[in-house]
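User: My advisor, Dr. K., asked me to get a structural model of this assembly before our group meeting. I'm new to this, so sorry if the format is off. These are the inputs:
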Amino acid sequence: MKNVSGIIPCYAADTSGVCSALYELGGMTVVHDASGCNSTYSTHDEPRWYDMRSNIFISALTELDAIMGNDEKLIEDTVSAANDRAPRFIAVCGSPMPMMTGVDFDAVAAEIESRSGIRTFALHTNGTRSYIEGASEAFLELVKEYARPCSKTEGGVAVLGLTPLDFPLGADKEIRRWLSENGFRCLSALAMGDDLGSVGALPAAELSLVVSQTGLAAAEYLKEEYGIPYVCGVPFGKEFAVHLAAYMKDIIKQNMGCSPVMEPCCGFEDADTVVIGEGFFAGSLTAALREDMNIKALPLCTLPAYGPFKSLIGGEISAEEDIKAFLEEKKPGTVIADPLFRYIVPKETRLIEVPHFAFSGRCFQRDMKNMINTDIKEYFK
Amino acid sequence: MIKLAIYGKGGIGKSTCTANLSAALASLGKRVIQIGCDPKADSTINLLHGDPVLPVMDYMRINDEEPESIEQISKIGFGGVLCIETGGPTPGLGCAGRGIITTFTLLEQLELFKRYKPDAVLYDVLGDVVCGGFAAPIREGYAEQVLIVTSGEKMALYAANNIYQAVKNFEDRSYAKVRGVILNRRNVENEEAKVRAFTDKAGIEITADIPRSDDIIRFEDMGMTCVEGDPGCEAAKRFLSLAQTLTDEDGKNG
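Assistant: The format is fine. Below is the predicted structure of the whole assembly, which you can bring to the meeting.
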């Protein structure tokens, strides 16, 4: 059977992607799901849960409410909670059961907005897709909703696609520091260490830096609506981080309206090292290994990939059996991946563990590595 | 664009009326899509000379994957009408309402309206608005008006009232509104008066009055609508008149 994971886990679901993307922005995220499921979104997939407050509302959908199509309870409870908490916006999203009963989330959101007077939008999650789709839709909706025309800020950069599902806590500070060291000004880092106010100022950016697939849809929108070019990549390592910053400056200087991707992100077919993970992570680490350590690697994207990055990383392989078959055929000397990939990596292959929160959750959180603008030689020697 | 959902009691003639209306709109030069939303998948058969289109649910059951193009799940019928059937799960299993939602999501993904650019879309929906799936055709972005097919028979009017109330329940949402009824005559006593009593109470109109006609039955036996078979017959004239009314209104609404 295709797409069945018998050994490795599946990635965090789309609903978790929404919760993660919106966590710090002062809104209220409403998940229409059974009581008890909040632990999945808010704790297993959320490392900020114990240290940072956020309004996450689980509707506690019952069997009878689902059968009877009792949307009124969801609407009334949400409005009541919103009256208590006064969030800046309300995002309503779904889970598998509402998907099966066909809840019309757009209509529900419109009714909540009409009764609460608080801007409300629907995010069309169903719990069966990956966090990429959920976070991607959430970022896109935010940018559509709150970005407004404004004058340009010289060297202004919008960082898009930043969540703890893909990056260790503190990554936002590292990216801001790196941007600052290179003469850029970080206008917004959606969405870690950021607030809703900065989303409005995104069109002041001269460039978007897309650091994961979750930020690409928002970047495309900013390009279409405001003519802001974007660059895809994460400043891993030292040399690659320098190269990426120089590349970004060139894009701004030449006022290129295209959608450039760092060419070194492209892998090497004869590589003996395979980097497994989210496409932007894998592509950027491949580039950093090459530039910092002269290691030829091949990125293997195991999550949905869209846009210009897809062709450079050779597409995506997401089914466990396909990943296993790829590794068995390729027989790489080294695989760089989350520790839970150990069980499908060939025995003779060396695994260098780089935990990915969206894959293994809190299991290896303390071992997550900050590789942004830092010496990576120690990790991969 | 004319965006119309047709509801009514089972067996009252929804598919007959919808297919004839599609054929009539096509005869007026309109680009029409008819989507049958019934597991029986027989809404469009009289536009296709009895050669049915593969329903969307059947495609997915056979191929175990979603279709990649509209052509895989549609056929061109009389007058160029694009015919699509949602179909449904194995009888007695699964969830037919969910099947309709899945089909609509898929048609969105395939950019049906963007690519086909229709002048009219007609949704022929099974019986009552029994669950969320069967309300999908009246959600925002799909049908804007509902026509309820009824005769003067008591149970047909009972169902018509249920449908009217169900649609009314959604008035807080930007859903379709009931436009009126198609009186599909069964020649019961005081038929028009009985139907008019219902429409007057509901504050809606009898939008079309279709006579009991052997022509309809005769041409359906030949796998076609009476609009195709004999556009001059009385029943066909009524459908053509309804098509003209809807077209004129659509023109006025810009």
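One thing worth pointing out at the meeting: Chain A touches chain B through eleven residues (CB under 8 Å).

User: Perfect, thanks a lot.
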